[in-house]
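Chapter summary example: a protein plus manganese (II) ion.
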Amino acid sequence: MSFLLTWYGHSAFLLNVDQHRILIDPYLSGNPMSPVKPDTIDADFILVSHGHGDHLGDSVAIAKRTGATVISNAEICDWLREKGVKTHAQHIGGGFSHPFGYLKLTTATHGSKLPDGTYGGNPAGFLLTTPYSDRLYFAGDTGLFGDMKLIGEEGLDVAILPIGDNYTMGPGDALRAVKLLQPQMVIPIHYNTTKLIQQDVAAWAERVEMETSAKVKVMKPGEEIAIQ
Ligand code: NI
Ligand code: MN
């Protein structure tokens, strides 16, 4: 088995690669879909895609309690360091070999202001190549962009894409994203958390599987899957 993925609703995930626990966009306390509380969760690393509250989430509290290192863009890392959080800053297009794999920050077309109004740099997605050569793309909050073709070019096992519309790609553009990325599996996120992003995920899954060769995995909050 190569890695485990647990979804906590919205954009929040726990990724397990070997003994490493990596939280992604840990919006837990304010997240109506999250089955877990931030004070019980453990992590070695926390990936933060951008500064918005529904992605930064409980990063500060979790990082301070667990000693986890937050990986994000330089602007967000500066802000976190002032709060006493351990960080590893990267930026768009830059990759680094962490113990859990080679992680690159990718473009996302969105905003990134931090909760107190501080500039949060450019928003990002994450492209991870694990030590077992599995490739995972987490798009973050983004609209559709043509360079998704470049991100998919080297092969993707899993693409995690927002489908909620209003703030990010909606179902139609997310389908076009799947066609550009050509992943083996796609996991829809960032939908049904609030009124403005309600979507019929089953209908979307059916359409994606009809029009592309990707398998769609619709996760339930709290569900853990193994990617091999
Ligand atoms: Ni956002
Ligand atoms: Mn968001």
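Key point: The first helix runs from residue 53 to 56.
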